[in-house]
């Protein structure tokens, strides 16, 4: 991504919607808000209870958890940026989707059991039980900050840009409408309303993305004489070979690859980002905390891992198909060309314009709104939970559930206003996607190191964890500042870019955690009162979690995880 986000409005052209498109979009908006409010109304007798509001009364099944995890993760950033990435570099950025499957297995098998058994309401709560209050405060601060900036503000930015092109109205108006509508059912209904609507939004999102893929593949399957056909994949291979771009189909690139993401950067760097995002970020893990029991908490992430196979084909592949159609002369991208070069940020809007007939574009508008609303609603609910449990309840331990819920609603409303205010600042990033990824690569390492060592090593000590969280965060901020002020400096010259930067920082934090734990070990617990102490909130051995059986043989999370891993290995082999 080489151009500022503000350029998208100049490059993308205008996408005209028909009456039917507008009707579809409006019906979707009204319907999703009504469903969210209906879910809240059906549980209104228990909405004063904090667990009911923040954790859906711990009633979520594995399917709802998996769909909600997927919907919260996928935002308009994925739809717009992945199409651009597909056009520019092929399937390479699909690694962020497929590698998530392996991380979700870690969440389901190793992390979720501890979270459920300890009865926590937030991830900072877990860190306090495992380590100390300082660790809780550090993670709570980072979690609220990243929820506002990464989950909400970046989603609003990319969503506003593309909706401005689709609806032909200023960005701020569409954002205000969507924020108000999303805020209504999220703030009123809590996690249950969020999960119910996210499950529906996932289906709408996938359906809309599938439309683009289908129409692009159908167009590529035809010829100039016979538009449309079933030979799209074969024609794609032929065009890429003719253009000398066969590597665009490769997910694992060699060292020195010009696109800057060699295979070792993916394997080493992604887990650092992924473990923080999928296993330690409240916005994501809150869906698991709302599970009805441990079995569903373990199965839900695995189902989400299965769903994460789809974005490569539904979000990234369309951009590659657009590239093939363009070089073959069958896709007009003149509206987003400057000085003879395609400015690929406008590819997604151009595909909607050129490939979808009137009437179908409304489905894409609904899909874009689904992606935006689901991400924002999930982040708002996590912010309200964090503020209520990790701030309000800390200073007012005897606060009533009703007051706790009220505080959470106020926090969500304030966070939404702050996120909207941040949109202009984030619009100054030269690259939206890389700007977000760069922030994560400097935030995640200390949290990943402390969490992984805390769960898999009982010798990981409290004072060491607090020191690493604080020191690692300061180090990350310092490195990010240097990289930002000196983009050509040595810190930005690591092979593998921000992925290897994340790995390097994580290794430094892990080494520091190990050394400090040896030098500053925790004292032995004074008595055995039946409550798990910090060291007991870690596995006896790294593979101890694999001894937990499932309730049924076919539903055993270990079996399901194994099947998912095999499927991912096969897919990587096919697109190596």
From TrEMBL:
Signal peptide: none annotated. It is found in: Membrane. It is a multi-pass membrane protein. The keyword ATP-binding does not apply. One of its GO terms (molecular function) is D-glucose:sodium symporter activity. One of its GO terms (cellular component) is plasma membrane. Pfam families: SSF (PF00474). It comes from the Bacteria. CDD domains: SLC5sbd_SGLT1-like. PROSITE patterns: NA_SOLUT_SYMP_3 (PS50283). Keywords: Membrane, Transmembrane, Transmembrane helix. Gene3D superfamilies: Sodium/glucose cotransporter (1.20.1730.10). The keyword Transmembrane applies. The chain crosses the membrane at residues 20-41, 53-78, 98-117, 138-163, 175-196, 203-221, 261-280, 301-326, 363-389, 410-429, 435-457, 464-485, 497-519, 559-575. NCBIfam families: sss. Belongs to the sodium:solute symporter (SSF) (TC 2.A.21) family. This is SSS sodium solute transporter superfamily. It comes from Rhodopirellula sallentina SM41.
